[in-house]
Amino acid sequence: MTQLNNFLRQLRADRDESLRHAAKEIGISAMYLSQLECGKAVNPSANVLERIATHYGIGVQQLYEVLTTSCNHDLSKTKAEAARKILTMDDDNFKKFLTMVKEKGIL
Fold it and tell me: Which pTM does this prediction carry?
């Protein structure tokens, strides 16, 4: 789950608003709003973010900040997972990995 989905769900809950009503007012399907709130749909378009912000009376910048925080958190998790995998590689796989990284010009 992302921070965005929790944030969207909380906005709707704070207004005691049904999923269908919110979706209708925003101009998206109830299914899509549900997917956004459950974290199954990610990276909504700028147009959708603007309509969500307008509906809830918040600045679109606030939604972008929530998205950015979510992306940074996901990236940190991915980096940590990659580091764990690299550290637990046997010597042969590490040599292959290192060769590939050097060939790509990353190191």
Answer: 0.64
